[in-house]
Amino acid sequence: MTQSARPNIVLIHWHDTGRYLGAYGRTHARTPHLDALARDAVVFDNAFSTAPLCSPARGSLFTGRYPHSNGLMGLAHLGWEYHANEQTLPMLLAPHGYESVLVGLQHESADASTLGYDEVIDVNADRQAAPVVAELAVDKLGTLAQSDTPFLMVVGMFEPHRPFPAHRFPTSDTAPVDVPPYLPASEGVLEDLRAFNAAVTYADEATGRILTRLRELGLYDNTIVVFTTDHGIPFPRAKSTLFDSGIEVALLVRLPGSTPPRPRCPDLVSHVDLVPTLLDVVGAPVPVRVQGVSFAAQLGHGETGQRREEIYAEKNWHGLRQYDPIRCVRTNRYKYIVSYEERPMVPLPVDIAISPSAIGVDDAAPRSPVELYDLEADPHETRNLAGQEALVETEKDLAERLASWQHGTQDPLLHGLIPAARRAASNRGAHPNRTEVIEPQFVQRS
C-alpha cells in the first residue's frame, strides 16, 4: 500500500461515558451526532475496556497492551507512566508516513510530548470544554487537508467526567433519564443523571462539529473514524469496578467507502484490539509485543479474522491510597472475578463518593474473593454463583483461562503486592482537573 493510498485516522475519545448513548439504546441520552455516525459505522455491542479507570484504560487503547504489561497501572497525574520502551499508536504509524496530532485531553503521561505525536495541542481544564477542543481540532483539520500526507488525529474530550457544573450543563427537574438497573431511582440519582445527560449532549455537539468539518473538507471518505469511551459511567457500581457497567465502552468504527447501514457487531472486543486493527487496515505490520487481536474482518476489511472467546480486565491502583488488585475474564456467557485483597463490593472513587448518587450506598459491604456470574440469567451481576456444584467445571475453566492470561502476560500481581508509583507527577498538567493556565503547546518531533 502506497502512502497516498493510506487513509487518515481520526480517533475521538470521551471520559466516563460507557455506552450511555442513543446508539446503545439510551433513549433519553440526546446524542444525535454520534447516533448519525453509528448509522454510518460498525457499532460494537460488546466492546470492553481493560480497566475501569482513566489512565490504564487509555494506555491499553493506545498501545494495544494490558496495563500491567505497559506499566500504566494507575492514574498518570499520580505518577504512573508507561514503561520506557512502550510504543504508542502514533509511534507505530510514524514509519509508515503518518503525521500525528493530539488535540485536547490525554491522561497517559505527565508530559504529553513523550507520547510520540508530531504535534500536541494541549489545553488546561478552564479551556478544555468540549467546544474549545472541537474548534482546535477543526482548525487543525483545515491545515491537514492541504497536505497529501496521511494523518492521525486523536481528540480527547474531558466531558462527561465529573463534576457537572450547572452553568455549563443546565438541566430541568422534569427531564426524563434512563436509570441503569443497578441504580435506585432516588432523587439524588435522578438529579445526577440529568446533569450527566446534559454533559453527554454537550460533548456530542462538539463531536458533531468535528465530523461535520471532515465532510466539509472532503476528508470523510478517506478517513477511518473511531469513537470510543474509556470505561463505564461515573456512578456507584460502575466506574472503578469490573462489573460490565464498569468496563463496558462504546465503540464506533467507520472505514472509508463504507455504505450505510452497517451491521452491528455482537463479537467480544477489547480496547487492546484497536491498535492492531488500525495497523491492519492501513497495511502496517503489527509488532509481536502487541497483545490485542485485530477485528479488521468485522469491519469488512479482509475475509477472515480471529474472534475472541473472552476479554480480560484488571484494576490495580485508583487513588494514592486506593490499592484494589482485581482481575477478571469474561466470555459471552460468564464473568469470573478474582480479588487479591479484602475490599468493598462497591468501591467509590472520591468524585463519586461526594455525588448525590452515593447517598445511601453501602460502600463497606465486603467483596467475595471469587465471583462468578451467569450473564445470560443475571446480566447485572447481582447473584454470585462461585462455588456452586453445578458450575464447578465452568469455574475451573475460567480460573484456568485467567491464570493462563496472567502468566502469558507476566502479570506482576502473581508475585505479590504491586507497589504504588515511585514518584509523584512533576507536572500537574496531565491531570484532567488541572486549573492552572496552560497555553496550547506545539511539540515538533525531530
UniProtKB/TrEMBL annotation:
Gene3D superfamilies xrefs: Alkaline Phosphatase, subunit A
Keywords of the record: Hydrolase, Metal-binding
Keyword Hydrolase appears in the UniProt entry: yes
Sulfatase N-terminal domain mapped to chain residues: 7-283
GO molecular function terms listed in the Swiss-Prot or TrEMBL record: metal ion binding; sulfuric ester hydrolase activity
Cleavable signal peptide: none
One matching Pfam family: Sulfatase
Annotated Gene Ontology cellular component terms: cytoplasm
Highest taxon of the lineage: Bacteria
UniProt family annotation: Belongs to the sulfatase family.
Classification via PANTHER family: IDURONATE 2-SULFATASE
Protein name: Sulfatase
Lineage per the UniProt record: Bacteria, Bacillati, Actinomycetota, Actinomycetes, Jiangellales
